[in-house]
Write a structure and sequence with these properties.
Largest sheet: 5 strands, mixed
Radius of gyration: 22 Å
Helix content: 25-40%
Order of helices and strands: HHHHEHHEHEHEHHEEHEEEEHEHHHHH
Number of strands: 11
Oligomer: single chain
Strand order of the largest sheet: 6-5-11-7-8
Length: about 450
């Protein structure tokens, strides 16, 4: 990832990644304090919890884990008169293919996460929180554990934080490395020591019945780091960086067939897909043309080069008008990508050039989802394995003419018929690849 060693691109604004790639910056607390670390926690502890939640709402911060749900609204679901303990669980599992941002924060700037969690904990009356890290991130778990110990030694965690009477303990919990634990209720089940089967919602909305059947907020690493940045910049300035209803920056993880792959922190709505690929990432590899883009991690629907989308955009007088928007002119934000029929998800942008077989690419994803299904729901347990077997057979030149039709039927009967969104995550690639590249699947079915 050579781009990580380069200075920020002009379209970037590094706030969450500000220290992660500064030469000489280390993850220890002394380095963090020299850069003004934990000053935002001091500010927050002098405020009322309701004021903190209101600031997060006004910032228009949306979750950076996939669903893009407004963070402050999510926090507002917690009742403060229920008499139950409250919990925060930080999702550091980061298992979505095409996504590779949170691990750099855990490794290079863990105190930013701890400070953001402490601010959130004070706002939500939380005294026990967990950072859930997948077992493959052994280095990350060690660095974060050390950072927690450093923060406790300096009085930023533990009993009577900064003399305010507020107590908070944070623990690292290592999972077994399961994609399903990216789903918040599965993550909660795993922390409780159970098989990570997703819970049915309702009634098990985490903000009502979460960890240990108590109110729980689940946010991912990047989201909680942004909480610290909101108090550093102020909610008004933070919200202005993005688009209406979607403030701040996003770390976009660009992988695949571009000249400069890597994570880039860009204000929300600050680039189109074309600008991201051709300007920020240096364009396609020599002699190659763009073929497809998966814009939000492997579970988001694929987009085909050359497509034009009918979308509602602001006209010259501010009114909303319908307009034909070419693929590369689509703004890289949640609302625009949703209007185009896909999603920003975790902002894991996978770029494929004209050397790529779409049948091979889909089979690669199908094999992943077949391996990662938790097996709780029959449509998913049986369906994703069936899909994987079919595309594997097609890749090997052993497909039959009926396979594309069967693939779509199976995918259609998984999506919307499972306890959690894994069914959609496994089905949407199949549905969209078949729709966007039918000729490649017809060739594969001999």
């Amino acid at each position: 990832m050579k781009s990580l060693l380069l200075p920020p691109h002009p379209k970037e604004r590094r706030i969450v990644f500000k220290n992660a790639w500064t030469q000489g910056y280390t993850p220890d607390i002394e380095c963090y304090l020299k850069d003004g670390g934990y000053e935002e926690l001091r500010k927050a502890l002098a405020m009322k919890p309701a004021e903190i939640i209101d600031e997060v709402k006004k910032s228009n911060l949306r979750g950076r884990g996939g669903a893009a749900f407004p963070c402050g609204v999510k926090w507002g679901f917690i009742r403060h008169d229920d008499g139950k303990p409250h919990y925060i669980t930080c999702n550091g599992d980061e298992s979505e293919p095409g996504t590779f941002k949170d691990r750099y924060i855990l490794n290079n700037d863990p105190h930013q996460l701890i400070e953001g969690m402490a601010i959130a904990a004070f706002a939500l009356n939380v005294h026990l929180a967990y950072i859930y890290i997948r077992c493959e991130f052994t280095k990350s778990a060690g660095i974060v554990t050390k950072a927690i110990e450093e923060a406790k030694a300096k009085g930023f965690l533990g009993k009577n934080i900064l003399g305010t009477g507020f107590d908070l303990e944070i623990y690292v919990h290592q999972g077994a490395g399961a994609y399903i634990c990216g789903e918040e209720t599965s993550l909660i089940e795993s922390i409780e020591g159970k098989r990570p089967y997703p819970r049915i919602k309702p009634p098990y909305f985490p903000a009502v019945l979460g960890l240990y059947m108590s109110p729980t907020i689940v946010n991912n690493v990047e989201t909680l780091c942004h909480v610290k940045q909101i108090f550093k910049l102020g909610s008004e300035e933070y919200s202005k960086m993005g688009t209406p209803g979607d403030g701040g920056t996003r770390v976009m993880c660009v992988s695949g067939d571009v000249m400069r792959p890597g994570p880039y922190e860009i204000p929300v709505g600050g680039v189109t897909l074309g600008e991201l690929i051709n300007d920020v990432c240096g364009g396609m590899k020599p002699g190659r043309k763009l073929k497809a883009i998966i814009p939000g991690g492997s579970s988001s629907k694929v987009m085909r080069a050359g497509e034009v989308y009918k979308m509602k955009v602001k006209g010259p007088d501010g009114e909303m008008i319908e307009k034909d928007v070419p693929l590369l002119d689509i703004t890289m934000d949640a609302a625009s990508l949703a209007a185009a029929g896909t999603m920003i998800g975790s902002a894991g942008v996978i770029v494929m050039d004209d050397s790529r077989s779409m049948l091979w690419a889909l089979n690669n994803l199908n094999t992943f989802y077949a391996h990662e299904s938790c097996g709780q729901c029959t449509p998913c347990r049986e369906g994703v394995l069936w899909i994987d077997k079919m595309t594997t057979r097609m890749v090997n030149g052993e497909g039959i003419a009926q396979d594309p039709i069967t693939l779509k039927n199976v995918a259609d009967n998984i999506a919307g018929r499972t306890v959690c969104a894994f069914g959609e995550a496994a089905s949407w690639p199949v549905q969209s690849f078949l729709e966007k590249f039918p000729e490649e699947f017809a060739v594969g079915a001999k």
